[in-house]
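User: I'm designing a mutation panel for Protein FAM76A and want to avoid disrupting the core. Could you give me a predicted structure to guide residue selection? Please restate the sequence first so the numbering is unambiguous.

Assistant: Good idea. Sequence first, for numbering, then the predicted C-alpha cells:
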Amino acid sequence: MSSATSTALFACSRCFSRHPFEELSPGEQLCKECRGSFPVVKCTYCRSEFQQTSKSNTSSICKKCEANVKAYGKPTACEYCNIIAAFIGNKCQRCANSERKYGSAVTCEQCKQRCAFDRHDDSKKVDGKLLCWLCTQSLKRALARTKQHLSSVDKHKHRSHKSKHNHKEKRKSDSMKGNGNDLSMGDAPLEKKSKLNPLQGLFSGELDPNSSDHVVAMTQLKETIASLQKKVQQKEMELLSKDKLITELKAQHHNDTTDLRIEMKNKERLNETKFSLMNSKIQNLLKEVATLSKSAKRNNKNIKSLTNDNSGSGTDSPSTN
C-alpha cells in the first residue's frame, strides 16, 4: 500500500474536499482554496484570529465577541492584558479563566507587563520564556514564518543539488565516451579551478567544479535569512508595541469618557439641588413680602383711625367750655 493511500484524509468544513490534516487550517479546518477566498483576520476585541465565513460579511469581530456585545454591551479594557475584551467586570474571559486555573498574574518576560500566568510546565513555555498570550501568539507567528522560509530554502537547495548531480552524471558519461586526449586536456582546467576554489577540498574529489559557487550562494542565503529574521523580529516588536499603545489609548479614552459622564451627571444633580433650593427661597421670600405688605396695610389703617379719633376730640373741646 502506498503512503498516499495509507495517510488519513480529512474533509474541509466548507467545500468538503478531503486533504491531509496538516493542510487544513487550525480551528476552522479549511483547505487552501477556502482559506484563499476567505481571509484570516484578527478580532477587534479579543485579538484572536478567525476565518471569515462569507465575502458579504467583512466584520472584524468574532462570533463569541459578537454574542457578548449583544448580551452585555461594549467591553472595557482588561486590567491585566489591556485588551478591550472585559465584558463582565474588569477582566477579560481569558485572563479570568487563567487566574482561576493558575493563580495570580506574573510579569511577562517579553513586554514586561503583569499579564502572564505561570502554568508550572516548561513545555508550555515558548523558547524557554514565560510569556503572555499576546507575546506568545506573535512569537509563534514569527517562528512559523521563519520555519516556512527555511523549508522553502531547503527545497530549493535540494532541487539545485539534484540538478547538479544529474549534470555531473551526464558529464561523466560524456567523458567516458571521449578519447584519452580529451580527458587529459580536460584535467588541466579542473586542477586550476580546484586551486582557485579551496572550498572544494572540503568535499569529495568527484564533485563538479561549480560546487564552490553553490557554497557561496548558500552562505549568502544564510546571511539574508539571518538578516530577514532580525527584521521580522523587529517588525513584530514594533507591531506589538503599536497594538499595546492602541489598546492603552483606547482604554484611556474609555476611562476619560466615563469620568466625564460621571462629572456631568454629578454637576446636573448639583444644579438641580441648587435650583430647587433657590425656588424654595424665592417662595419663602414671596410669602414674607406678602405678610409684610399685609401687616403694613393694617398698620396704615390703624394709624388713620387713630388720627381721625384725635381730630374729632379736638373740635368738640371749645363747645363744652
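For picking mutation sites, this is relevant: The chain is about 65% helix and 5% strand. The two ends are 162 Å apart (CA to CA).
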